[in-house]
Amino acid sequence: MLYSLYLQQFTERIWCFKKDFFFRNTATLIQRRGAVRGKANFVVNFVPQQEAWVVERMGKFHSILDPGFNILLPFLDRIKYVQVLKELAIEVPQQGAVTSDNVQLQIDGVLYLRVVDPYKASYGVEDPEYAITQLAQTTMRSEVGKINLDTVFKEREQLNINIVESINKAAEPWGLQCMRYEIRDMTMPIKIQEAMQMQVEAERRKRAAILESEGKREAAINIAEGEKRARILASEASMQEKINEAKGKAEAIQINAQAQALSIKLVSESLNKAGGYDAAALSVAEKYVTAFGQIAKETNTIIVPSDLANASGMVAQAMTVYNQLAKKKEPFMLSLKQSDPETKDGGGKLS
């Protein structure tokens, strides 16, 4: 009976040991945002993914356990630190900063970092979170002090980059890497906010005035261009009108000349025919009488020759002039006939 009781107690102890050994993965932890102290050594240990366990043997650094199955010596090995390798987000408390143009700002942000060297993160700094937070605050104040207020608003992204670069230079001995830093809120004095609001309103009024003036200028330019185009079209129309009138007059003169030449040709042919002389005399007499009739219509006072009634004398004088011109024409036509090859061959005819 006593043997059975001892066997039952021994079995329960073995079961509790197996339960703790295989299923209990963590002990009571002292959390420090990425660094954990006091993890128990169960000889056979299972390290979770994205964690690094720093092991000390007899108080001295021994090794860093990788994720998975690991065996440690009892009593001699101790899990001193547990470093979380995931990216962590840490709030940077609000703090004051002065720009280069002496404007007081209250700025807070968010810092994203991760552990890249578990050994340095364990032995390089006592409290990584506190150290990196203080470093971010001092770096931010330093970077803001280099620029003015307008640059803070315009180049916030570049300011974040400069802060990250400065933090990484200082945090390298701690085994930490700053992934990015984001300014979250910026608070300015009330007077500065009012001045900025007035500046924004003035800028908007300025833009409105510029747009209005540009609109008036464009309208004036359009009106001037329209008037210019209208004048050009009017001048081109006037020029075309004058050209058309000149062409019309030239064509009229040409037609009149052709008609007159045809008339002279017909008269010449008629004079060379039988009775042509008498017809010419009759025509001269008719034009003589018609001319004096027109003069009498235009004015009441007329100066006339003394032998006005002697129309036959006037006709005789006109015919005498015609005969003299005809005699002068004969030598000219003869020389023209001699110089013309077609006339020499008999192809031409002298009128």
UniProtKB/TrEMBL annotation:
Stretches assigned to the Band domain: 42-200
Subcellular location: Mitochondrion
Any single GO BP term: mitochondrion organization
Domain of life: Eukaryota
UniProt cross-references to SUPFAM superfamilies, sorted A to Z: Band 7/SPFH domain (SSF117892)
Record's keyword annotation contains Mitochondrion: yes
Major location category of this protein: mitochondrion
Keyword Membrane annotated: no
GO cellular component: membrane; mitochondrion
Keyword terms: Mitochondrion
Family indicated by similarity: Belongs to the band 7/mec-2 family.
Name the record gives this protein: Band 7 domain-containing protein
Organism of this sequence: Brugia timori
